[in-house]
Write a structure and sequence with these properties.
The structure is a homodimer. Chain A is of the alpha/beta class. Chain A has helices at about 25, 50-65, 85-95, 110-120, 135-145, 200-220, 235-250, 260-265, 280-295, 315-320; strands at about 15-20, 35, 75-80, 100-105, 130-135, 160, 165-170, 180-185, 230, 260, 275-280, 300-310, 325-335. In chain A, strands 1, 2, 3, 4, 5, 7, 8, 9, 10, 12 and 13 form an eleven-stranded mixed sheet that branches. Chain A has a two-stranded parallel ribbon with strand order 6-11. β4 of chain A pairs antiparallel with β4 (about 100-105) of chain B.
Chain lengths: ~350, ~350
């Protein structure tokens, strides 16, 4: 199977970012790093769906403010979420005067967007792109499972959909103060392992994550230890252990530098989140709250980051279809990390 | 507002395409041009949703067969539909061994995909891309409105969701027998006119279509009459007349060369489709069945083609939100149409 790592002609830079989160996210270990939070999770809106849309709007506005850019400078805006027909993105960003591309990669949406935003920058007419992604625990529960009021029990393998939104601005030209460079891309292939348990998304996504990372190492000739960190989106505790097993079975044993956004975003001893966090807002906020600061401060120099998605809808689960997974990988390097690479 | 027409460095070519349709589509004026049809609309599947997924698979397989390409040669596959979480694309294409990008632009998905597939080809690692899109009347009715058995009445402004799928293969290098060149792109901006009538999608989309075409003419200095055809996706009869009014009010009166896929796909005198066809499968099949053959045979040389989408979901309509529209434009030129352009 052909897997070609894509190297942008000139590595785009992530100029800046912003994150918005809910109560439980604020209480997590990275809670202080959100730009905006609302302990009611409602963001002054009447429905969970419009609250999620508002989080996308707030995240993008804050990212623009932090970078000194205007929405009218955005040449291509990539946005997606878990809500049917990408409605959080549509209604959150409808008044942004920028070309709008709805994308869907379930919880892999962040890196699907970063990939497309990086590729678009290769056109000389495109100089600034944006990626926005979100999830909201209450809109996701209502749509995919049961209304919150139902109070259904959740098995230990289940994950907690993050109430969060992240916005990222990318430029084709290095600028002062940028967070990171995007130096390589490996878009994911959907992997169907035949799993049907919608309470164990980590297991459904782990094979896709392993496929993407193993393909990356095979194509590049590199190894996990060549990186400061290899990061997955929201495999959770369950999916992460499967992911490491798959790597070990395929020539990458004893990986010590793996982190998973879903396993880290909450204090799992205190918060009742079972296997960890999930949703587009998980990787969507953790990249900005944890990993870009590490690169910006030079504490880490090279990170492989792959958000992971479980591809399904409520009807497909009810009709007994399996849950394919997907993982899109981006290679991120600290902004000052020499120009000899690529 | 910044609207920048994007010119691909080397115009990508549409190498080939294929279409799949249902009974009513086969009975329409372009029915004989479908590569595959099934008069049961079921495509040997047990559910409407899996039937739609099968249509995507069949369309891509047929397009690959017609162009002599293999799925493993595809560097980036862009696919979308109207089903929640792009499930027709996911389950139709999950076994295609190619990097998968889910996209959502409602009925504008075809040209959103052609835009991204063209931009991706600017990366030297990408040489073949694919776009697949679909809609199915029965899966759309069940999801957005009522199950077919309910037999709800439909107002005259309503449209009929096309049961159809189209697949397109694009290459960065001109090859013998290609259908058309993609010589310019103008991605759409979401336009919210405050309309809330989900039985009149044409009116919701017409302002976005007008915005995209008027921006194109303003930026390029060209006029509608500089083209052989200006084509919209699925405004239907109602939306088309509004679209032409908007053009007339903004300096483009008496446009004689406009066609709308939705207004043409059915014989509206015979078929009970009210304002015309709609859905991702409308523009998704009409580009291949009507417009690419015109370009290939040299009967038309330059076409502006914009699929149009209404951005909403069932919950947003129930919650009283408006229905924004969007239209992504691609400029298509006949394959032999001199290299002096661009």
């Amino acid at each position: 199977m052909k897997r070609r790592i894509l190297y942008p002609g000139t590595p785009p830079v992530i100029l800046g970012c912003a994150t918005v989160g809910g109560r439980r996210e604020k209480e997590g270990p990275f809670g202080a790093l959100f730009d905006l939070t609302d302990k009611t999770d409602r963001f002054r809106k009447k429905t969970w769906e419009t609250a999620e849309a508002e989080m996308q709007r707030l995240a993008l506005c804050k990212a623009l403010e932090k970078t000194g850019k205007s929405a009218m400078e955005i040449d291509a805006l990539f946005a997606g979420d878990l809500i049917n027909q990408c409605a959080a993105s549509v209604f959150g960003l409808v008044n942004v005067p920028a070309p709008f591309f709805g994308i869907f990669g379930a919880c892999s949406t962040l890196t699907e967007g970063l990939t497309l935003a990086s590729l678009a920058l290769e056109n000389p007419g495109v100089s600034l792109t944006a990626v926005v992604t979100s999830s909201h625990n209450c809109s996701a529960e209502r749509q995919f499972r049961s209304p919150l009021e139902y109070g259904g029990q959740r098995p230990p393998t289940s994950q907690w959909t993050v109430t969060g939104a992240g916005a990222y601005l990318l430029s084709g030209r290095a600028e002062e103060g940028c967070c990171a460079r995007v130096t390589a891309l490996l878009p994911g292939i959907a992997v169907d392992s035949g799993l049907t348990d919608s309470s164990n998304m980590g297991a459904a996504m782990a094979p896709a994550a392993a496929d993407t990372f193993l393909s990356y190492f095979a194509e590049s000739g590199e190894r996990p230890e060549d990186y400061d960190l290899i990061v997955t989106g929201d495999l959770g505790a369950e999916g992460s252990s499967l992911f490491l097993e798959f790597l070990a079975e395929n020539g990458c044993p004893n990986v010590k530098n793996h982190e998973d956004c879903g396993a880290l975003i909450y204090d799992r001893k205190r918060a009742d989140v079972h296997s960890g966090g999930s949703g587009c807002g998980c990787a969507g906020t953790m990249l900005a709250n944890r990993y870009l600061p590490l690169l910006l401060r030079g504490e880490k120099r090279r990170i492989l980051f792959a958000a992971t998605g479980a591809l399904m809808n409520a009807a497909s689960v009810q009709q007994g279809l399996s849950i394919p997974g997907i993982a899109h990988l981006v290679r991120l390097e600290s902004p000052e990390n020499g120009k000899e690479k690529i």
